[in-house]
TrEMBL record:
Pfam families: DUF4865. This is DUF4865 domain-containing protein. It comes from the Bacteria. It comes from Streptomyces hiroshimensis.
Length: 188
């Protein structure tokens, strides 16, 4: 599994209805994408759930890195983002774990992301503890659709991304909260 996300931060007065319409009319295009586990079309809207920005920030889990590369640079779909918004920085993480939650059969409406710095010492133990916490979260919270854990070995950051059935719980220790506009999950 490989995770990636790009964040397109938009002006403070940007009409987020434009992004909602974009996803409503184009989101289905990846519903059958070979090699992709999921794409969560997520946004943050300024002033909603504490967001300081308007942002379109799709999140992907890929089962096949060749399919991911073809999507990014081989004319497989990313050119539409580049054409409409310029070429964003694409963050990427090597997958550690992906857990199904009790709400897997529902359509997720919210997502959370948590980025944490990994310690220089005790790395193995820290990652193992986070993987166990992810399993517990997925199994123990009725509203979890999917929970993923991945590592960025360039910046030594750990990513936890969770899709939620309706909303991100207020006590979740995430760093970002998103609204999910659509979920393509051809190989989840």
């Amino acid at each position: 599994m490989y995770a990636k996300q790009y964040e397109i931060t938009l002006p403070a007065d940007y009409d987020m209805g434009i992004i909602r319409e974009r996803v409503a009319t184009r989101g289905h295009a990846l519903d059958d994408r070979a090699g992709m586990a999921l794409k969560a079309y997520v946004i943050r809207e300024r002033g909603v759930n504490g967001s300081p920005v308007n942002q379109y920030a799709p999140f992907y889990l890929w089962n096949d890195t060749a399919a991911m590369s073809e999507f990014l640079v081989g004319g497989g779909g990313f050119e539409g983002i580049v054409r409409d918004f310029g070429r964003p920085v694409v963050r990427h993480w090597a997958g550690i774990a992906c857990e199904a939650g009790p709400a897997r059969g529902a359509v997720p409406r919210a997502a959370s992301r948590r980025l944490t710095q990994l310690p220089a010492e005790g790395l193995t133990e820290a990652v193992a503890a986070e993987a166990e916490a992810l399993r517990e979260l997925a199994a123990g919270h009725d509203a979890v659709h999917t929970a993923a854990l991945a590592v960025d070995p360039h910046h030594w950051q750990l990513l936890r991304f969770v899709l939620w059935q309706e909303s991100v719980p207020l006590d979740d220790d995430c760093t970002e909260r998103y609204e999910v506009l659509h979920l393509s999950a051809p190989e989840l």
